Amino acid sequence: MTQAIRNYCLFLWRCARIAFVGDWRYYAWMGALSVLCLLGLNAYCKQFAHGLIVTGMSDEVSWGVYIANFTFLVGVAAAAVMLVIPVYIYNNHELHDLVIFGELLAVAAILMCLAFVTVDLGRPDRFWHLIPGLGQFNFPASMLSWDVVVLNGYLLLNVHICGYLLYCRYRNRKPAKWFYIPFVFIAIVWAVSIHTVTAFLYVGLGGRPFWNSSIVGPRFLASAFTAGPALIILAMQVVRRVTASPPGVDVAGVALDGAVPASLVHFEMLERHLPEMASVPAELRSEILAGATVLEGNAGDVVCRQGESSDEAYFVLQGRVVIKREESGRFRITRSSGPGEQFGEISGLAGTPRVASAIVEEPSLILRLNAESMRKLMKPAPMNRIIHSRMTERLMITDRALMTLRGIVQVSMLINVFLLVNEIFKEFYTRTAHVASSHYLLLGLHGHHALVPWIWTAIAFNLIAMFLLVLPVSRSLKYLNVACVLAIVGIWIEKGMGLVIPGFIPTPLGAISEYSPSLNETLVCLGIWAFGLLCYTIFLRMAVPILQGRLSHANEQALYPAQAPVAEPAMAKT
Amino acid sequence: MSCNCNSNKPGCCHSSEQGVSRRNFLRTSAVLASGLAALAASLSPLMEMEDVPSAEKFLQKYYKELTPEEMAKVLKRIENEVERQYGIRPHVRDLKPMDGVEFVYCLNLTRCIGCRKCVHACVKENNQSRNPEIQYIRVLKMPHGTFDMEKGDHNYAPESVPEKGFFYMPVQCQQCKNPPCVKVCPVHATWTDSDGITVIDYDWCIGCRYCEAACPYWARHFNFTKPNIPKDKLNPEMAYLGNRPRRQGVMEKCHFCVQRTRAGKYPACLEVCPVGARKFGNILDPNSEVSYILRTKRVFMQLKEELGTSPRFFYYFDV
To answer: So where are chain A's domains?
Structure first.
């Protein structure tokens, strides 16, 4: 047990170190975010010293842009579940690797949520009054105490699931189902609950008719499941772009040729890196040998090309082979395979065109099996299991996965707009006294209309996004991205400022006092957003190499060539 | 690592490696130093803080968990603090609700002339911040014939009151039997005592302002910054749950002047009222004035009755 904890901490330490390694773009991005974070911190320190008077809030409008952002971000966090459900309930493999990115986004979003509620507190020094056991926790009466429970619980669930799955990938080990699947299902229910509880925070207030409406909960979920996956669509394309290499450069290498028949020695080499080989008996080995050859390649050699038809599968015996996939005119590295790892087996077994190219990264020895031999190799159960489990271990952000997300965003957006129409109908058709807040929001009230331009911008954005999403044009990523940006901005306005502020206008005593955030408040918000992006970038910086197989327990030295003992072939060359 | 000299002396590569690591070291420390400097600069506004909580204040226990000895200590500390800040030695008490008492407020809308004397008496009695202004009572000037508060005027300022065609409706904490503010507080910092007064432990409130959002009567007011009370205007007769000076970042509201009413006096707003529109007393006592009013007046009402908050504050008319 202690050993496991020590290993896990070591893993976190390795991950933490990698967060400080990157090219100049990475440093520039992280530097800019850090500067924004510090600006936000500075603004918050001013607020801490002088009180919330430095914000635009007042007794009339006592919550502002902090709580608005909080509400929006709880939705983003909850939306990670829309990736988890297809993968774990409907076995959608396209989205498999995206799940971890979605959950990491949820972790970053929850951290931002916690930051936003903290900066909204008048006495953050008394936060310990909220800790059950230490303070006085008004659970279950106060919806805010529910929120504290569900948000922190969701954070822990996601940290556990992401951390465990990435750790297993790092150790090249199959994750134990009992140790994460139950948590995945709890997280699904939990995700819905975090956003419902956040909605109940508002719905539960009888004195605020604008919020005291049962449709707020469903509207929150619909808008969350629109904005969240939309954000993931954009984030995934950024990841894809950053991990891509310029087109046409790498696959121009010489096709690898000159195979020699394999011998039993090569199987022993493989067994050293793939202990499951032990389950292949000697007579089966000699049968497999009939369809086995060995290739020797230098850096840049092409083992197989995307689009070619072939019925062969490969194992790396020595060295390293990188798997690249061309999509939308760019090459994405989906995996880097080291000794003992297979590639090309999916199309090899199926006889379909190759979905990716394989290029030798460093001088390598590669075992090539034809489909028949590969099938024989997979006969023993342990081999079958390990090969199958590794088939899914590829970082592939395919266009098809993005289109699946598009489908989710599409449906959620339609529901979101439909629910909005419901609310508007109820308010304006009946025109009870309760219409005042909606009137203020949409049309202005008694000459006050600070929010009117905002909400109509939001409605226009949402409608344009909805049409783009419904029309086939959004099958092209360009239009899909436009729709996603519009949807995110539209929902951010609609359920942030558009929900929180009108609830306070007019006040319960009928007075109208408008709100706009102060500069200091805006800086704090920017700082927290920068902090969230900083966290998410660091998470991705750690997760991508692990998913690509570049950062693993076996080859962690490779990442730090400066610290690693100088490799022997390199010495020989100088 | 590349080494361009052709010698095979082992020291050559070694020294260049050392040079790089020295450069690395210098670069890392430069980045680290400027990072720390930037962090210090961002934290610098904290130096402007006037009211840094001491360890004792930071760790102070919840009101209901304080033993009488601990309470005595806390009261002493508060007295010292007030004396240091305002130059007056106050008398701070922890007044408990009396047995067999449930307070109720009745306000005669026929009589109220909208002079706002109650507002100012309340500010004075309860040591409310003058800048920014915090007032527990808001008087609405309402046109005859409606109870729609959106039609009310909060900022009326005529030469003299009352004006023809209007009536005046003062609103303050309604001391609900089913208070939404108490329900939503995440830390039990506000509760209703047995005499029906909803009080706040100013030393326990975390300042989330959820109660302010929950209150249908706009009765709760927040200290957005350090309250500002002129030294010569301080009322030294104080109660822990009542009118002792509040601190930045906490909620406050009308508490029926606990420092007076729990000591057998009337609230300040009642005493100052020039027309006798305000009546206050123990509803459990059948001979009290409020019992008589609620028994005999044909029209009285609770504000926003439909919300189910069940206020202990009644408005009535002389009919």
So the answer is: 40-243+404-552, 250-391
pLDDT per residue over B69-90, tens digit each?
A: 999 999 999 999 999 999 999 9
Q: How far is A228 from chain B (nearest CA, A)?
A: 27
Q: What is the pLDDT of residue B8?
A: 42
**Neighbouring C-alpha atoms within 13 Å toward the C-beta of B319:** 8
d(CA A77, CA A97): 17
ipTM: 0.91
Smallest Cβ–Cβ distance between B154 and the set A35, A135, A511 belongs to A511
pLDDT tens profile B249-270: 999 999 999 999 999 999 999 9
Q: Which residues pair with B251 in a beta bridge?
A: B222
Cβ contacts of B62 on chain A, cutoff 8 Å? 129, 135-136
Are the beta carbons of B64 and B212 closer than 8 angstroms? no
pLDDT-derived band at B33 (thresholds 50, 70, 90) equals very high
**A290: its two tokens:** 């009939």
Q: How far apart are CA A447 and CA B40, in angstroms?
A: 46
Interchain pair B42, A41: CB under 8 A: yes
Q: Which fold has domain A250-391?
A: Jelly Rolls (2.60.120)
Q: Which of A59-63, A337-341, A524-528 has the lowest mean pLDDT?
A: A337-341
Phi then psi for B68, rounded to 5 degrees?
Answer: -55, -35
**Tokens at residue A81, please?**
């579940």
Measured distance CA(B29)–CA(A352) in Å, rounded: 55
Task: Note the pLDDT tens digit of each residue in B278-312.
Answer: 999 999 999 999 999 999 988 789 999 999 999 99
Taking a contact as any Cβ pair under 8 Å apart, which residues of chain A between 399 and 458 contact chain B?
Answer: 433, 436
Q: Verify whether the Cβ–Cβ distance A574 to B2 is below 8 Å.
A: yes
The CATH H-level superfamily of A40-243+404-552 is Formate dehydrogenase/DMSO reductase domain (1.20.1630.10)
Taking CB atoms and an 8 Å limit, are A138 and B187 in contact across chains?
Answer: yes
Determine whether the interchain pair A135/B62 forms a contact, defined as Cβ–Cβ distance below 8 Å.
yes
Phi, psi of B256 (to 5 degrees): 50, 35
Q: Which domain holds residue B207?
A: 103-316
